[in-house]
Amino acid sequence: MTDQDVGVAFATLATALAVALHKQGVADGEALLAETVGTLEAVLQDDYPETARAILSACARSLRAAEG
Fold first, then answer.
1. How many CA atoms lie within 13 A of 24 on its CB side?
2. Nearest CA to 41 among 16, 66, 6?
3. Which residues contact 38 (CB under 8 A, 6 or more apart)?
4. For a 10 Å CB count at each end of the chain, is N or C smaller?
C-alpha cells in the first residue's frame, strides 16, 4: 500500500462525508449514513487503486453496520 493509495481513499471518504453533510444536514443521521455509503459504493465502481478500494470498502461496510 502506497501513501498515495491511502491519501486517495481518505480524500474520497472525506469528500463523500462532506457531500452527504451538505445534502442531508447534520441532524438526519440515518440519511447521512445512507448517502455516504451510496457515494462510497458508487466510487468503488471506478478505477481506483486496489488498496484504496479496500480501504473504502471497509469504510462502507462499517457505515452499513452503523445503519442497522
1. 17
2. 16
3. none
4. C
Q: CA angle, corner 17, sides to 31 and 8, nearest 5?
A: 145
- Which residues in 1-32 are b (16+ Cβ under 10 Å) and which e? eeeebeebbeebbeebbeebeeebeeeeeeeb
| Displacement of CA 60 from its chain's centroid (Å) | 6
- Which structural domain range is residue 14 located in? 3-65
User: What tens digit of pLDDT does each residue of 49-61 get?
Assistant: 787 778 778 877 8
Angle at 34 between CA 16 and CA 51, to 5 degrees: 50
The domain tally of the chain equals 1
Q: Which three cell numbers stand for residue 31?
A: 440519511
In whole angstroms, what is the distance from residue 52 CA to residue 15 CA?
Answer: 14
